[in-house]
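USER: Note each token:
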Amino acid sequence: MRTVIQMNHGNRISFPAEIADEDVRSSDQLVEHFIRAYTKPGDVVFDPFAGFGTTLTVAERLRRIGYGIEFLQDRVEYIRSIVENKANIFHGSALEMEKFDLPEIDFSFTSPPYMSANDHPQYPFTAYEITGDGYGQYLQDIQSVYRQLKRKLKPNAVAVIEASNIINHGRMTPLAWDIARSVGEVLHLEKEIIVQWDGDSAEGTYGFGYDHCYCLIFRNR
């Protein structure tokens, strides 16, 4: 697999007008790229931060079986409105993954909620609704998510995390690299794929100062 890829950041599924300004989805082209690379039809594909269901919808379109967990009830309802297997999306926190009835997992893809190391009191894993214990706790918690996921992943299965570094008020948070280090204590960090997005402005696709992201490839060894 190439270590630098270029693609469009858009999605095939258009958002309803009432939630169009909340569109923070991963590119379905990117999700498809990795699902095709690491799975076959009938495999179980899982997203611990399901968001608006991109991983699940792409998995179903490619004849895989999608599962996910999403913290916000309205997003769970939205996902259920666009997927075939409605019972496969769970409402709750990925930090409590072990309480959900998940099957053995062949592959995982997600883009977790982001946090910068400065000027960011809102906690990502509660949908930014409460004040958390800081960036260090965020990294510990994402490691906890993947420690639980490891118990569900089949041997040698792959988990991909899409993440970007952040520039916030003139200070850089190496978010992608910090996630790589933290999750790498649980799963084997095999390599990174750099994704360069087509047609981005100088502000970057993510609004955080970058027009590219990293897809971190972990394997359950």
Remarks:
- The radius of gyration is 16 Å.
- The chain has one domain: 4-11+23-219.
- The chain has a mean pLDDT of 89.
